[in-house]
Amino acid sequence: MASGSPKSASERREAQREALRQQRQAELRRQRSVRIIIIAVITVIALALLSVAGLFIYRAATADKQPVTMPTGVSEDAPYLSFGAEEGSGAPVVDLNLDFMCPYCGQFDGVNSADIQELVENDQMTLHLTPRRFLDANSTSGDYSTRAANALVCVYEENPDNALAFTTLMYENQPAEGSAGLTDDQILEYAKQAGASDEVSSCMSSKTYWGYVRKAAEPYGADLASSTPYVAIDGTVFEDYYTEGAFKQAVLEAAGSSASDTGGASDSGR
């Protein structure tokens, strides 16, 4: 014999209503949980963005307060690093703008670094090297170009003969755009491999030339060109960056033209 009496129609309707009520409550609880999760995620992202923005603002404000300490022998009117033949010697003058985060600069150095070193050592050109930092924003640290340029000037200040070798080592180990860049310890190691002493460490950590890089070298380089690399030989822009030997040949041709214009050795006895 069946236990209990069959439910009446009203009882069935009430049971259905109760089931629907519980379903609605469960759905409302689910929606509230989803909203809470979404709000939490948005809050975390917003805080992260604010932290990053705050870091960039802080670094920009700190950079603005950096004193402009010029490297020895470098003037604010001509804030480049000089190599090779003396100014006014008659050798071709080469203006070179580089940014250590710039991949095209790395390609240029890879093709031409040996020729640049040779031309400098033989006093066959006067090289004006301007370290740029306009690609700071392309590193997650927000300051890689400045840090690397500061290190270059520290090496140059200690001994200019090591600066070009350091530049090449930095490009041979160049970090990808969008990364944090090399650490200060890595940069110091490449400086030492180029011949610098441990003394450059304090120059790097104290940001001695940050003001020079940002307030003197960068504006000067930006006036010459909006991007890097920028190469000009006696004021004429050179753009055959990646053909092996082309840069050296152009410099030597400019040297020959300068000798003819001023009366070189072939004319001296006439």
Automatic annotation (TrEMBL):
Residue span(s) of domain Thioredoxin-like fold: 91-250
Source domain of life: Bacteria
Residues passing through the membrane, by range: 34-58
Gene3D superfamilies: Glutaredoxin (3.40.30.10)
Pfam family of the protein (one): Thioredoxin_4
Keywords for this protein: Membrane, Transmembrane, Transmembrane helix
Record-linked SUPFAM superfamilies: Thioredoxin-like (SSF52833)
Name of protein: DsbA family protein
Protein's organism: Brachybacterium rhamnosum
